[in-house]
Amino acid sequence: MDQNNNCIFCQILAGKAPAAWVIEKGPVVAFMDIFPLRPGHVLVIPRDHHPLVTQLDESTRGQLMETGNRIARAMRELYPEGTDINWLINDGKAAWQHVPHVHLHLIPRTGRDNLRFMGRIATRFLHKPDMAQFEADARRLRKLL
Ligand SMILES: [Zn+2]
Known about the structure:
17% strand
């Protein structure tokens, strides 16, 4: 596998950093974002390290979307009050990409959650990483996949 030791996602993939896994096997995996913008925020990433979407091979790029789709379906089932989802890829530094490894954000939204994307940094500090909560969220999603 094509990995980069300086990349936090590659470290997670190598088991050197913790993650609450939603999908752990296969060329595209998913885990709970450790700095969730909303509860239930999931990251979907290819196993191979590439910074940009255009650098993925066609099959992996397709699987990124299909894996996102499986999780999005589970999210809508999990939150019966009705949840919409931001599918978000920041592709390159100027486009707010902080980790240079392709990742698809799936952020569950309701009409009253007041999330503002320009407030991203402040929001990160409002939600402290809570691994027990992430594990519980990941387990609930896994059951619905
Ligand atoms: Zn990486």
